[in-house]
């Protein structure tokens, strides 16, 4: 879950972060030490806990129970605070809420013993305090000041303040993200002071920049007014502003409290630069192949189609990237599957077929879509939380069938009858599978669970594409992330690495599939056995959720492919990855995700394919097209497209031209049962009649609408 900002000119985000510094302060914590500072945590339930976090200049304590093992019950506590006799004490705190879930509770106790154990916390008497809190149910709120919370009833006592986080589950809508930016206890009364900051000191023209006012003291309510040297003003402690022309600019903020006392910050200096043109290399070789985790997933079934129909800025940015890179074959990960095909149809007609921001439109005559395991219920309690039927009990984690689906778009014919899928292949049927075990060595999953447990969290597809008489097998997948479990096998002690081991074996399936000596055990969804023949040409594409050097993958799982003699790895890079200086795992030139990991791969076979060139689409900060990617902010996706140009050479064992209709703008290969017998375009015409025929004719002869 990430903050998704709508970048519009002069957008006011909030009144923002208004911490109070009092005339007399009894306790203060603003997490500026880059840690939880004086605060302590107590975990009563779930494997999630309060942690330190930072974002765009703000430091905070953060708790998020989404994806935890069970519903959360977690406490963030101050040390014991002594309130003098007769003190008119008040509590002030500032919070941000992300997405939907139960409200955070500010609480006070006079009998908590400070031992830091769940038993002690639960034995203490806690009283809920007031204070303003954000109430949003989508996205991230602005920073919200509690205002003064009266503690005069606790004068001449020793107290502990707690922030109590609870969730009702581990999925969207049940577990919000809460951030506490500061906590102060004092008697109030100080005049305000203010310091201003900007998220960047150098920015491209017409690019939104975040300005923050850190306000101390003053009597609420307070008002913050920004003055920019381009002549514009904005109101709010945190605002977005962009400069239209190159030059050096300043910004100051003036804060006024309820008593009319005011303070003005020192100026913040910002340089606005004219962007450089980001130019992609001209195509080389036979074709350009790409993979792109588009982040076009939604939390509710049908929501993606609704968003695309209404007009969606994120989808437009995804489409523009595709239009500018112009791959001949591309795998889209995290594109929600729906059996009707409405979402894909809308994306093709209203986004790809319409030029975005001066880019040329692009239309793919062929595509392949099929069901995936995400959201398909197993009938078992696979996440062992005692509540069968929730997203963690699906064959792949998901709120509905098809969430986080996949799509292949192609300029070249797909031989639908030769597509093979492995959606239903059981994990236990892989020889020497890395099935997760409990710390005592017993199986984490019961025999009954393993009897239904599918290896692929989404699916594995072998989709043969015919390129000028040569066959190229597109091996597409999207293994589960190796996180959201107890830890990493071989790294953390006494853990059950159920997602890490599954990710490892999902990657292994392709490593075995391309090797005739190892693939005999593999059975596709139609009962076909074995893998690719020797001297078959392939390219493995997808978000593999595994980095060879960084992150949490089990046994460096991706090395099963990168070090494989049957696979070519050119390790493509980008300028933007090195500019991603706030990456959680550190910036490397070959990163494909904002966290600073290499997760997305285009890996051709050593046989029959020569790689001519390749890149990760991630323009540097000073380039015009960085507006499509950004840094630590989701504009198009949190992933970056990986593309490679390649030449298909020599003769492969299955280089046979398919029997297929003449290319038409509506040709479709679609599998509705997950099997290898995909439905071809003319069969679809017979099944769907005049409606699809009208669609094909309209797309072929009319301008898209």
From TrEMBL:
Phylogenetic classification of the source organism: Bacteria, Pseudomonadati, Pseudomonadota, Gammaproteobacteria, Chromatiales
Any one GO MF annotation of this record: catalytic activity
Organism: Halothiobacillus neapolitanus (strain ATCC 23641 / DSM 15147 / CIP 104769 / NCIMB 8539 / c2) (Thiobacillus neapolitanus)
Source organism, top-level taxon: Bacteria
Stored InterPro entries: DUF5017, Endo/exonu/phosph_ase_sf, Endo/exonuclease/phosphatase, Ig-like_fold, PKD/Chitinase_dom, PKD_dom, PKD_dom_sf
SUPFAM superfamilies named in the record: DNase I-like, PKD domain
Span of domain PKD: 192-272
Official protein name in the record: PKD domain containing protein
Listed NCBIfam families: choice_anch_J (NF038128)
